[in-house]
Amino acid sequence: MTSPAPSRHIALPGTTNFRDLGGYRGHQGRSVRWRVLFRSDHLADLTPEGVQALHGLGVRRSADFRGAQERRVDAYAWDGLHTHALTVEPTVVQKAFALIHAGGSLTAADSVALMQETYRHFVRDNTAQFAQLFQLLLEDEVPTVFHCTAGKDRTGWAAALILEALGVARADIEHDYLLTNQFYQRPAAMAARAAQAMPQDILDVLWRVQPSFLASAYDMVEREHGGMQRYLREVMQLDEHALHALRARYLQG
């Protein structure tokens, strides 16, 4: 009798978007291992029960993509968790608020364009941080969580890159990416403050994910680097040896 697959979404008290990348079919039909690669919203609000559950999952390393101010406002330091700051500043929300505060207007369509530009920045301007994540994963196979604030954009692109390197199909990568819309819940205080500054239709763009956001990053990879495999090899510094090591470590069998 086949055992049921582990839960992809994990109810970790203090987070809403903590998920396992395991189970997707990758290179040569081998599935991504469960309970070694996790993606999440930030970890600063973990309750004592949440910290205990994190330890229970065996997670000993975190890769934090938040900007410097985000880390200062919502800092965390949990015993037994080695944290690496891979700083990617959150420019899209800053641009949106700056435009409104300057008296400008912002539509939902403008917000979509801002989000798409943000993903292009990931590809063009933040390569070192995402490449560093791969270097961490190649150091050893200690269970690792990578995250930003909401676990949707910076984290979403990082998850897409990892799954691409492991040979997961693009449709499954997009499926994983869009799960944020099912699980992420905005903190009540944050939602209340933002609602006073921006219309709801704009907030729905900024706090959710859309296929076109991820597609804009892929389009940039194709235009400027000739495709994902070349991007992984030349920009993420994953030569054949590194790809083999990554797949040996994180794929079953």
List the main descriptive attributes of the protein structure presented here.
five-stranded mixed sheet, 253 residues, Tyrosine-protein phosphatase, alpha/beta, protein tyrosine phosphatase activity, Protein-Tyrosine Phosphatase, Chain A, 13 helices, hydrolase
CATH homologous superfamily label: Protein tyrosine phosphatase superfamily
Low-confidence stretches: none
Secondary structure: helix percent: 40-55%
Q: Which CATH C-level class is it?
A: Alpha Beta
Enzyme class: hydrolase
Protein name: Tyrosine-protein phosphatase
GO molecular function: protein tyrosine phosphatase activity
EC number: 3.1.3.48
Overview of the molecule:
This protein has helices at 48-56, 68-73, 91-101, 108-125, 127-139, 154-165, 170-178, 180-183, 188-197, 200-206, 211-225, 228-234, 240-250, and strands spanning 19-20, 37-40, 61-64, 82-85, 144-147. It is of the alpha/beta class. The chain has one domain (19-250): Protein-Tyrosine Phosphatase, Chain A, CATH 3.90.190. Helix 2 (68-73) links the parallel strand 3 (61-64) and strand 4. Helix 4 (108-125) runs parallel beside helix 10 and helix 6 (154-165) packs antiparallel against helix 7 (170-178). 34% of the residues are buried.
